[in-house]
């Protein structure tokens, strides 16, 4: 599914209005109804509601929401913040519709800001996607007072003060919302770790923006829905055999870290690979043979570290490399050999990323359109350097993808996938229970298995990250977030794939 910028959202509004022959106030009414539907489900009629409105259409939404909640018998107070002479036309219309119902209070000075007790349910309708400069002055005073209260704040469309698709300047005040209810589609800003404290728990409510516009508009930003993942997943053929589903090679594990190889191998097998071979340092040979009987195991001549490539390497159709490897010189040399000689698709994780990051020569020998990197933020920083903020980091990541014609899966909540063409796909599954050692190794195994099965590198990243998070979400239901370990994620892969196949 596409993510739209603020400008595209505006175009979508205009297109929808024209296509349906409605007015912009009709669309505002629809948006406010969608918000109110969510609000009514969440908060009881007995709640006291304060709505803070800014001068634009976000404030207009706030006025309509106030009217609808008042009609439903909530106790509602409306506060108009700032200069109400310069308001948007739809705001004006709705102010007239509201004013005969109940009086509104104006806030132009700090002493007019009301006391906000903990029990008040605040609706933040100060600014939405039209914010074009940092929030200062009386608006900032209101934002600060709301943030300092312990009231529950629900933001309409956006937490006021945050830019929807670029870095907010540091001098601007930003609402710290408990909930953010966005219209039609999530905003890029919601998916970035730096905004967690502002966006809170976000939900999207449909407002019937034109499907035609959304399907035709050009974008390089996407988020993965369940249907997107289902569309990618391929059925297994009746007369198929293991040779059809690929032969993967995993180069993982080191002395004291053979578990990483076990985790990657088990996840790879649980993700549909036809055949799996691992090569591990000789100290790990019997561990792998015992822990993962379904996989074939080769023993490296070195007892502790990866030091050589398998002799008949051509027979594999993908190589997953990195988890548990360590960064010994001998391993670095072996990775150098792999990069300069291999014609394989490569899934590169963990220490293999760290090794490549440390050498411009290795970076220069990366084969084009063959590599998926799966770094966590620290590994990404080693690979591409430090970035000032989440927006710059995504830009820098895409520049790297373009320069080296590779894919990068930046792991975290809403893992972000960058492609050589400059597209970004955000994941929508996963939970903080997965913030535990070894879950990344599981992801390496999954993506390696998908590449083995002839999914394109882009498909393998999108589906792999989605199903990994989905397995984590299913694990959450049985073990919770505190006790979750990486094996729980693998143990729920069967259910996750079946869920995508609509078999469970
Ligand atoms: N028909 C439509 O266009 C629809 C718009 N919708 C709502 O409209 C919002 C966007 O509305 P607008 O484009 O009017 O924008 P906003 O309501 O976000 O704010 C823009 C207004 O605030 C002023 N402004 C911007 N930054 C400021 C700052 N830092 N300090 C003081 N004033 C500032 C601008 O000059 C402008 O008057 C969406 O977020 C959504 O809530 C929804 O009603 C759906 C339909
Ligand atoms: N808070 C979170 N929400 C969702 N997913 C998470 C969260 N924390 C971690 N994960 C997922 O767990 C995995 C952790 O990978 P990584 O940091 O490489 O761990 P390790 O190296 O220990 O295996 C990633 O796929 C990441 O997306
Ligand atoms: K808002």
UniProtKB/TrEMBL annotation:
<comment type="function">
    <text>Catalyzes the epimerization of the S- and R-forms of NAD(P)HX, a damaged form of NAD(P)H that is a result of enzymatic or heat-dependent hydration. This is a prerequisite for the S-specific NAD(P)H-hydrate dehydratase to allow the repair of both epimers of NAD(P)HX.</text>
</comment>
<feature type="binding site">
    <location>
        <begin position="57"/>
        <end position="61"/>
    </location>
    <ligand>
        <name>(6S)-NADPHX</name>
    </ligand>
</feature>
<comment type="similarity">
    <text>In the N-terminal section; belongs to the NnrE/AIBP family.</text>
</comment>
<feature type="binding site">
    <location>
        <position position="324"/>
    </location>
    <ligand>
        <name>(6S)-NADPHX</name>
    </ligand>
</feature>
<keyword id="KW-0067">ATP-binding</keyword>
<feature type="binding site">
    <location>
        <position position="124"/>
    </location>
    <ligand>
        <name>K(+)</name>
    </ligand>
</feature>
<dbReference type="InterPro" id="IPR030677">
    <property type="entry name" value="Nnr"/>
</dbReference>
<feature type="domain" description="YjeF N-terminal">
    <location>
        <begin position="9"/>
        <end position="215"/>
    </location>
</feature>
<comment type="function">
    <text>Bifunctional enzyme that catalyzes the epimerization of the S- and R-forms of NAD(P)HX and the dehydration of the S-form of NAD(P)HX at the expense of ADP, which is converted to AMP. This allows the repair of both epimers of NAD(P)HX, a damaged form of NAD(P)H that is a result of enzymatic or heat-dependent hydration.</text>
</comment>
<comment type="subunit">
    <text>Homotetramer.</text>
</comment>
<keyword id="KW-0413">Isomerase</keyword>
<dbReference type="InterPro" id="IPR036652">
    <property type="entry name" value="YjeF_N_dom_sf"/>
</dbReference>
<feature type="domain" description="YjeF C-terminal">
    <location>
        <begin position="225"/>
        <end position="500"/>
    </location>
</feature>
<keyword id="KW-0521">NADP</keyword>
<feature type="binding site">
    <location>
        <position position="160"/>
    </location>
    <ligand>
        <name>K(+)</name>
    </ligand>
</feature>
<dbReference type="InterPro" id="IPR029056">
    <property type="entry name" value="Ribokinase-like"/>
</dbReference>
<feature type="binding site">
    <location>
        <position position="440"/>
    </location>
    <ligand>
        <name>AMP</name>
    </ligand>
</feature>
<dbReference type="Pfam" id="PF03853">
    <property type="entry name" value="YjeF_N"/>
</dbReference>
<keyword id="KW-0511">Multifunctional enzyme</keyword>
<keyword id="KW-0479">Metal-binding</keyword>
<feature type="binding site">
    <location>
        <begin position="128"/>
        <end position="134"/>
    </location>
    <ligand>
        <name>(6S)-NADPHX</name>
    </ligand>
</feature>
<keyword id="KW-0456">Lyase</keyword>
<dbReference type="InterPro" id="IPR000631">
    <property type="entry name" value="CARKD"/>
</dbReference>
<feature type="binding site">
    <location>
        <position position="441"/>
    </location>
    <ligand>
        <name>(6S)-NADPHX</name>
    </ligand>
</feature>
<keyword id="KW-0520">NAD</keyword>
<keyword id="KW-0630">Potassium</keyword>
<dbReference type="InterPro" id="IPR004443">
    <property type="entry name" value="YjeF_N_dom"/>
</dbReference>
<feature type="binding site">
    <location>
        <begin position="411"/>
        <end position="415"/>
    </location>
    <ligand>
        <name>AMP</name>
    </ligand>
</feature>
<feature type="binding site">
    <location>
        <position position="58"/>
    </location>
    <ligand>
        <name>K(+)</name>
    </ligand>
</feature>
<keyword id="KW-0547">Nucleotide-binding</keyword>
<comment type="similarity">
    <text>Belongs to the NnrD/CARKD family.</text>
</comment>
<feature type="binding site">
    <location>
        <position position="260"/>
    </location>
    <ligand>
        <name>(6S)-NADPHX</name>
    </ligand>
</feature>
<protein>
    <recommendedName>
        <fullName>Bifunctional NAD(P)H-hydrate repair enzyme</fullName>
        <ecNumber>4.2.1.136</ecNumber>
        <ecNumber>5.1.99.6</ecNumber>
    </recommendedName>
</protein>
<feature type="binding site">
    <location>
        <position position="157"/>
    </location>
    <ligand>
        <name>(6S)-NADPHX</name>
    </ligand>
</feature>
<dbReference type="InterPro" id="IPR017953">
    <property type="entry name" value="Carbohydrate_kinase_pred_CS"/>
</dbReference>
<dbReference type="Pfam" id="PF01256">
    <property type="entry name" value="Carb_kinase"/>
</dbReference>
<feature type="binding site">
    <location>
        <position position="376"/>
    </location>
    <ligand>
        <name>(6S)-NADPHX</name>
    </ligand>
</feature>
<feature type="binding site">
    <location>
        <position position="139"/>
    </location>
    <ligand>
        <name>(6S)-NADPHX</name>
    </ligand>
</feature>
């Amino acid at each position: 599914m596409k993510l739209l910028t603020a400008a595209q959202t505006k175009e979508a509004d205009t297109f929808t209005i024209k296509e349906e022959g409605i007015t912009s106030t009709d669309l505002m009414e629809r948006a406010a109804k969608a918000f109110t539907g969510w609000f009514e489900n969440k908060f009881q009629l007995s709640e006291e509601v304060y709505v803070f409105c800014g001068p634009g259409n976000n404030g207009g939404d706030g006025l309509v929401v106030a009217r609808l909640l008042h009609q439903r018998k909530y106790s509602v107070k409306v506060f108009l913040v700032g200069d109400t002479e310069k308001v948007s036309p739809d705001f004006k219309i709705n102010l007239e519709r509201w004013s005969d119902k109940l009086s509104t209070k104006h806030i132009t000075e700090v002493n007019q800001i009301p006391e906000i007790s903990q029990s008040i349910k605040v609706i933040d309708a100060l600014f939405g996607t039209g914010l074009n400069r940092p929030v200062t002055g009386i608006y900032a005073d209101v934002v600060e007072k709301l943030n300092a209260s312990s009231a529950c704040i629900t933001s309409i469309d956006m937490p006021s003060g945050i830019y929807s698709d670029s870095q907010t300047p540091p001098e601007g005040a930003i609402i710290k919302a408990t909930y953010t209810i966005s219209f039609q589609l999530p905003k890029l800003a919601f998916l970035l770790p730096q905004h967690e404290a502002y966006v809170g728990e976000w939900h999207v409510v449909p407002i019937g923006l034109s499907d035609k516009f959304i399907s035709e508009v050009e974008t390089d930003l996407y988020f993965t829905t369940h249907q997107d993942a289902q569309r990618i997943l391929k059925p297994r053929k009746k007369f198929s055999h293991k040779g059809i589903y690929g032969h993967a090679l995993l180069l993982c594990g080191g002395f004291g870290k053979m578990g990483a190889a076990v985790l990657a191998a088990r996840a790879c097998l649980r993700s549909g690979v036809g055949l799996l071979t691992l090569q591990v340092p000789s100290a790990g040979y019997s561990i792998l043979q015992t822990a993962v009987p379904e996989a074939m195991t080769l023993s490296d001549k070195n007892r502790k570290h990866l030091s050589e490539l398998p002799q008949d390497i051509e027979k594999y159709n993908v190589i997953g490399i990195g988890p548990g490897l360590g960064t010994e010189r001998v391993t670095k040399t072996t990775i150098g050999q792999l990069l300069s000689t291999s014609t394989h698709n490569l899934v590169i994780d963990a220490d293999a990323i760290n090794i490549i990051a440390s050498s411009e020569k290795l970076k220069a020998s990366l084969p084009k359109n063959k590599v998926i990197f799966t770094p966590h933020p620290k590994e990404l920083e080693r690979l591409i350097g430090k970035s000032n903020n989440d927006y710059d980091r995504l830009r820098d990541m895409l520049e790297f993808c373009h320069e080296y014609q590779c894919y990068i899966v930046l792991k975290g909540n809403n893992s972000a996938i960058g492609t050589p063409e400059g597209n970004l796909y955000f994941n929508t599954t996963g939970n903080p229970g997965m913030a535990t050692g070894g879950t990344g190794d599981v992801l390496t195994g999954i993506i390696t298995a998908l590449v083995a099965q002839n999914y394109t590198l882009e498909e393998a990243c999108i589906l792999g990250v989605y199903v990994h998070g989905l397995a984590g979400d299913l694990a959450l239901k049985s073990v919770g977030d505190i006790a979750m370990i990486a094996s729980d994620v693998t143990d729920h892969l069967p259910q996750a794939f079946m869920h995508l196949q609509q078999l469970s």
